[in-house]
Predict the 3D structure of the following.
Amino acid sequence: MSFPTASIVTSRGLCLASLICSSSGNSLLLSDAFCQHRTAFIRNISRLRTRTPKKVYWFKRMAPPVFDATEIQRKLEETPEARFMKVGPARIHESSSAFYDPLLNKFTNMIMFKGQKELAEENMRLAFENIKKIQMEKYHATTDVTAKMRVELNPLKIFHQAVENCKPVLALTPIKRGGVTYQVPVSVRDKTAEWTAMKWLILAGREHEHQIHFRETIAKELIAAFQNEGRVIKRKYDLHKQCEANKAYAHYRWSR
Amino acid sequence: MSELAKGVRWTTSHLRLLLDQATRYAGPSRTSWKGYRGVSSVSGSPRMSSNSPSDANAPRKLSGAAVSEFVKNAHLNEADPKVKVNRAMRSYLERAQAHNMFMKQQQQDFEICRRHLANMMGEDVETFSQEDIDDSIRYLLPSNLFSRRSRPLMKPPQEVFPQEKEAQFGIDGRPFRSLFYTGLPNYYQVLYDAANWTRQLDDLEDERVRKGKVPPEKQIDLTGTAWKSKDEMSKMLLEKISDHDYRRFVLTMERLLRHPYAYRVEEFIKKYRQVLIAETKDLAPPVPKKDDSGKSYAESHATKKSCHAWVTLKQGTGKYDINGQDLLFFPRVQDRTQVMFPLQFLNKLYDFDVIARAEFGGNSSKAQAIREGISRCLTAFVTSEELELMRQAGLLTHDKRVKERKKYAYTGARSKPQWRKR
C-alpha cells in the first residue's frame, strides 16, 4: 500500500488561503474573518490533508520488473512484501540478456527519428564499431606496455563514462522578478543531468559537414568526452562558469 | 402500518402488533443495546488493555435487539395507555418491519427458485448448493457481457441486499453517542480509537523516558497482511466511506503503527488488516503431458495486441520452431532476445525445444506473445522459487495494452487536425 504522505496544514496557511478541509473532505471557501475565529477549531478537526493519487498507466502502479536473479533474491529477502505485490510486464526492449543496457536504450531512443528504431540501433552499433576501431588503432600505436593497458577498448564502458563526464551539476533557469528575467542557477537532479549530457552529446554529433556520417562524429565525441575533452565537456564548463557568474541571483529561487 | 401512516393515536396494542412483526423475522442481535451506552464510559477513561475501546461499538445491523428493548420499555409503561414514542423511532420501527418483511419474502422466493432450478436441472433438491446454482445459471443463461457484475446471477438475498444499521437512538429520539452527528459514527469511532491509542502510547513513552527506559525491540509481525480495502471497511462498518475517508484512516493507522510501543495494541491494529495471498498462488500452471517418445511437454496460448501465439514447450536440446522456421524467423535481434528471454533467465536454454505458431500482428507482437507463451509453459516445469523469480522479472504478467481506436473527425486516437479560428 503506498499512499502520498500527508502535509500538515498550519493555521497560518489556512488563514492565508481561506481554504478549509472539512471533516467530510469537501473544501469550503470561507472569509478571512470567519477563519480567524475558527482557526483553533479547524486545527483540531483536520490537521491531516491528503492528496489524491495521480492517475497513471496501469503497469506503473505495479512494481517494476528486475532482470537479475541475484538482485531479485536480495529484494525478496529485504522486503518480504514483494511477494504480495503485482509486478509489471517486462517491456519489449527489456530482457536479462547481457546486451541489454537501459542507458544505451535511452540514448538510442533519443537519436531516433519518426520511430525508426532499427535505424537508430544500427547507427549506434556502427558508432560503437567506430569507437572500437579508433581505440584498437590507438592500442596498436602505443609501444609502452603500461600505456597500452590504459587504453579502454570496451565501447560500452566508454559510452557510460562519457555520459557520466558530461553531466552538469548546475543549470540555469529563467525566473521573473520585478519584470526582469534572471538566469538563476539551480541544482540539477541526476536524471535531468543524464538527459542533458546525452542531449549535448547528440547535438555535438549532429554538428558536422555533409558527407560525414553521424556514427563517425558521435564516436569521436564519445571518445573525447570519455577523456574529459571535446566540445561537450567545454559546454559543461561554460555552463558552470555562467552559473558561477550568476550566483548572486541564486536567492531568487526561494525569495521575491 | 397503514393506520399508523394515517396518524392514528399510538397505543400499546399497536406497538405490540408492530413489534411482534418486527421481532419475528429479525435474526439474533450481536450485542445488546446497552453496548452503546458503554461507549461514553470507555472512551472517557480508557484502560490500557488489549481490549480495544471499540469492542463495544461493533457495527450493528438492523435486528431485533433494539426492538426487544423497546418491548421491555413498553411493558413498563403498561399503565400508561399512550406511550410517548419519538417520531424518528416510530419511523425506524416501521422501516425495520418493512425491511424484515421484504427480506422474508425474498428469502421465500429464493428458496422456491432454488428448488425449481434443482428440478429443472434434475438434481436433488435438498443438496442443491450455491455452487450448483451458479453453475446452472451459467449454463441456462450464458452471457458474454464484459462486466462480470452485469451477468445474470442468483444469490441469497442477504448477499444481494445491503445490511442496514440498527437504531442509533432511543425511544425518546436521543442518539446514544455524540458521533451520531458525524453521519459516519462507526468510521469516526475507529479514527477516534486509533488517535486515542496513539495519545496513550505517547503518554506511556513519556513516562518510560522519564524513568530512563528504552522501548523494547518488539514489532508486530505484519508480513503478508495489508490494511483492509475501502470496500471491506465499508462492509465491516456498515457505512459508505469515501476515498478521502479511507486515506485518512490509513494515515491514522500508519501513524499508530509507527509508534515504538505499537505492539501493545496489536489486537486493535490486526482487526483492520487483511491477509494477503501470494501473487504466485493465482497462477495456474499448465499440466505437463507425455508424448509418444516419453518426453513431457506443456502447451499454452498467449496474446499480445492482435497477435495470438500457440506454444508447445518440450523437453529437448534448445531447438526453435517458429512458424516452421528457426529463430531467424525474426529479422530483428530484439525479437530473438525476447523469445529466448524466459529460458535464458532460468539457464534452461538447452533443456527445452520450442514449437510456436504465431499469427496476426507484427513481429514485435509475435515475439512478445511467444515469450509469454513460453513463460507460461515453463511454469509447469519449475520450482515455486523459480516461479517467483519469473514473476519478479515481469514474465508472468500479461501486457494488456492495446492500440487505442481512432476517433471520427480526429486524425488519430487523440490528435486533432490543425485548426485556426479564422
